[in-house]
Amino acid sequence: MSNSKVVVVTGVSSGIGRATAETFAKRGCRVFGTVRNTAKAQAIPGVVFIEMDIRDEASVQQGIQAVIAQAGRIDVLVNSAGVTLVGATEETSIAEAQTLFDTNLLGILRTTQAVLPHMRGQRSGRIVNVSSVLGFLPAPYMGLYSASKHAVERMSETLDHEVRQFGIRVALVEPSFTKTNLDLNAPQAASTISAYDAERRIVSQAIQKGIQNAAAPDGVAKAIVDAALGTWKMRHTPKGEASLLAKLRRFMPAVPVEKGLRKKFGLS
Q1: Catalytic residue status for 14
Q2: End-to-end alpha-carbon separation of the chain, Å?
Q3: What CATH number should be reported for the domain holding residue 233?
Q4: Catalytic residue among 131, 132, 156, 176, which?
Q5: 52-79 pLDDT, tens digit each
Q6: 243 classed as catalytic
Q7: 141 an active-site residue?
Q8: Collapsing DSSP states into helix, strand and coil, what is residue 127?
Q9: Containing domain of residue 161, as a range?
Q10: Is 13 part of the annotated catalytic residue set?
């Protein structure tokens, strides 16, 4: 793919989405970034804002049609918008789980279904879904978030088989801890169970430490742009911890990996 592609990036108000939109613009792409409220969004040079709520079907359809009306085509869709949640699985309410999946999984499904007719018509396209190392690894006290990313991975792999006949490919980017406001201010499950208090506190502190020591989202943004514009491959792990974890998961036995994870999160 050349650098003159029309790119749609979801969730560009801050964090990974914003850094990704900036990186695409610097590469010479025509970039449209989705935000829930254009009036409140801080401008990004070279990026046109599109108002869209990925949890709302009508909003998604209107947003994608607005891009088509302006650019005539969509070459790349980057699904980067997402939410997180910290809490024991038993503590997580059904409503909280539904909100998480409505954003992290069904949000991707809505935007993908809105874009695919246009990509099929032009017989080309690239869809990049931002997953996480938790898409292939568990994380204590982030069970529903991990489950949503596992679901994104399986849906992406399946979709790639279905749409490559139309010249469309799907890729995953799997970052580890990234220093963003979303992660630093990760919401906690509203209803807590005292039996989990001690361990949850330890894990929450480990997560915060990991985020504070993590790299800025620029490295993840580069991996996303490479996944979108470079030679296709399914999985992309940014350099550093994410790449190391992917290798450990692939080559090490399950028991040492599990012990390493528990140690990382401060659990005995």
Answers
A1: no
A2: 48
A3: 3.40.50.720
A4: 131
A5: 999 999 999 999 999 999 999 999 999 9
A6: no
A7: no
A8: strand
A9: 6-264
A10: yes
